[in-house]
Amino acid sequence: MTKLLSLLLISALTFASFARADEPKGDALAGSKKIAMCIGCHGISGYQASFPVVYKVPKIAGQTASYITTALNEYKKGERRHPSMRAISKSLSDQDMADISAYYQELGRSEAAAMPAKATEPEGEAVALVQKGACTSCHGANLSMPIGPNYPKIAGQYADYVLVALRSYKADSQSVWGRNNAIMAGVAKQFSTDELAVLAKYVAAQQSELQTVPQNKFKFWAAN
Description:
About 50% of the residues lie in helices and about 0% in strands.
């Protein structure tokens, strides 16, 4: 990792340690009653978004609650610019975000299909790319044990989503779908699109705790 990225990482971790002290405590049961806008995409296995390209929406069941909250806040503040997610996040209070995040973290834990993540050594071109990107410095040795709660588990995430996310960080100034994050922008901009695709494929191949848990929105509405 470059000296600049190391400094940015230290700053981010320091900020996160202070920020978490003021975060509301999430209630998974309360969150289960606030997910009507989520399940239409994240509750359908293999559901595809079509902007800015066609890709599968990310698996979020089993993701850390703090990271989900972080991502929602980034959409709300415009640091991530996907139009649909920005609109949804703007409708949520801090407590709503905490409750929804707690729900999805627990949803992953409750599924019997969830398996402990195991490290898989990168092969071929991926070896050099993973090392160059210092991916394990933040996401952990198996890409499923992040160094802090505000960092995501990425092992087993859909490859096409990972590629879109990396390209969004690389295009951080793009006004419609770019993402602002100094650490990830610094990582992504080191690579060509083809290299990012290799990284995304490697990430997707890792054994994962992340899942898409199918949820029927009609049953949800009937129950609520």
